[in-house]
Specification:
- With 180 residues, this protein is of the alpha/beta class.
- The protein has a single domain, classed as P-loop containing nucleotide triphosphate hydrolases (Rossmann fold).
- Helices cover 36% and strands 21% of the residues.
- The chain contains seven helices and nine strands.
- The chain has a five-stranded parallel sheet with strand order 2-7-1-8-9. Strands 4-3-6-5 form a four-stranded mixed sheet.
- Strand 5 and strand 6 form a beta hairpin.
- Pathway: Metabolic intermediate biosynthesis; 5-phospho-alpha-D-ribose 1-diphosphate biosynthesis; 5-phospho-alpha-D-ribose 1-diphosphate from D-ribose 5-phosphate (route II): step 3/3.
Length: 180
């Protein structure tokens, strides 16, 4: 049986990486895709492979990614090797942009989308707290926070304003419903 690609999407600051890490900690059989990003190394948050623009372009041209996109002045890539994990039957969490969901569903027909949401004040506080971006960038990210999902994309919506454990409980219950 093939594993599922589980896209975790939502606005910047909603806690995608925190939710994913907590989900994987509770279910060791659940993997997390390590993205390739044209971002400086060691900025905190997720574990990612930092590369320059030239290296990213070369990787994209040589088929190293099964999905890639650009957002917030950065380029993001999902390594093609994720297909091996899925073929081995492992469910894999991936932090994706809402703008690439239609492409993801075409490439991975059995994919699942978890759409994390949070109130604007929660997002603003989290973005400021992580200290990665200047105020202007935070304001741009907040302006995009209410971006809707592409037409035809079905998602499970999970609110992440309260304790992390509540969002993780809801996400795991949606992905792995208890069988009675």
């Amino acid at each position: 049986m093939s594993g599922r690609l589980i896209a975790v999407v939502g606005p910047s600051g909603v806690g995608k990486d925190s939710v994913m890490a907590a989900m994987a900690a509770r279910r060791p059989d659940l993997g997390i895709v390590r993205r390739v990003i044209t971002r400086a190394p060691d900025l905190g948050g997720e574990d990612y492979e930092a590369v320059g623009e030239t290296a990213f372009a070369h990787m994209a041209a040589t088929g190293a990614f099964c999905l890639s996109w650009q957002a917030h002045g950065l380029r993001y890539g999902i390594p093609a090797a994720v297909r091996d994990d899925l073929a081995d039957g492992r469910d894999m969490l991936v932090n994706l942009s809402r703008g690439v969901l239609a492409e993801m569903q075409a490439a991975f027909p059995g994919a699942v989308v978890l759409h994390l949401t949070a109130r604007p004040e929660t997002l603003a506080k989290r973005l400021a707290g992580r200290g990665r971006e200047p105020r202007e960038v935070i304001e741009t990210r907040l302006a995009r926070a209410d971006m809707s999902l592409p037409a035809g994309v079905r998602a499970v919506e999970i609110a992440n304003d309260g304790p992390l454990s509540e969002a993780v409980d809801a996400a795991l219950a949606a992905l792995y419903p208890a069988r009675v």
